[in-house]
Amino acid sequence: MAIPANQITNVNPSPLNRLESAYLPEIFKGFGTTMRHFFTSFGQGPTSRTMQYPEERRENLPVEEGGINASNFRGVHRLNRDEDGRVRCVACMMCPTICPARCIHIEAAEAPWDDREKYPKKFEIDELRCIFCGMCEEACPVDAIELTTEYDIVGLSRQEMVFDKEKLLHIHDLTIGKKPM
Question: Which of 46, 48, 132, 166 has a CA that sits 20 to 30 A from residue 139's CA?
Fold first, then answer.
């Protein structure tokens, strides 16, 4: 569908004078802005976003200064347990289907319990590949997968950063008693 001629506006910019065409005033304005920010943020000034991690941690800061707001912060994953202590996941395959990074891998098996058909025999999340978008948490119909406020995970190899079912349940055990920040 073509745009009607009466809706088209031609914009003719005014020609640059000799000083403007040299771009010198704009370069000096930009340099002035850079120097102003350099001197106001030098030594942890009010505009500084630099944090001295690990001495200064996000959870110890107010939200206005970059602290963690638990309602919208997405850190490392955990698999939740049901009231009987079993993994809550029913292996419906919603999380690996919706994951844009394709970092969740599940192998389903027939459940040994009467209250569900399947359970995850194998559940893995590649934390290095994950983009922490939270879509897996939103897609889960039984609230089995959740992103916590933990963000300081470490692995010495790529394989250590692939979290299996046991590691994800262990994170649940570590974080379930913590209050949201």
Answer: 166
Q: Which domain holds residue 126?
A: 77-175
Total length of the chain? 181
* pTM of this prediction exceeds 0.85: no
Q: How many domains does the chain have?
A: 1
Report if residue 120 sits inside a domain: yes
Which residue carries 């649940």 as its tokens? 172
51 within some domain: no
CB atoms within 10 A of CB 28: 10
Q: What is the CATH number of the domain that holds 146?
A: 3.30.70.3270
Report the alpha-carbon angle 23-24-29, nearest 5. Answer: 100
Q: Is 108 helix (H, G, I), strand (E, B) or coil?
A: strand
Q: Report d(CA 147, CA 134) in Å as an integer.
A: 7
Rounded CA-CA distance 130/104 in Å is: 8
pLDDT tens track of the chain, all 181 residues? 788 989 999 999 888 888 778 888 889 999 999 888 777 655 555 555 677 778 877 776 777 666 677 677 888 999 999 999 999 999 999 999 999 999 999 999 999 999 999 999 999 999 999 999 999 999 999 999 999 988 888 899 999 999 999 999 999 998 886 644 4
Distance of CA 101 to the CA centre of its chain: 12
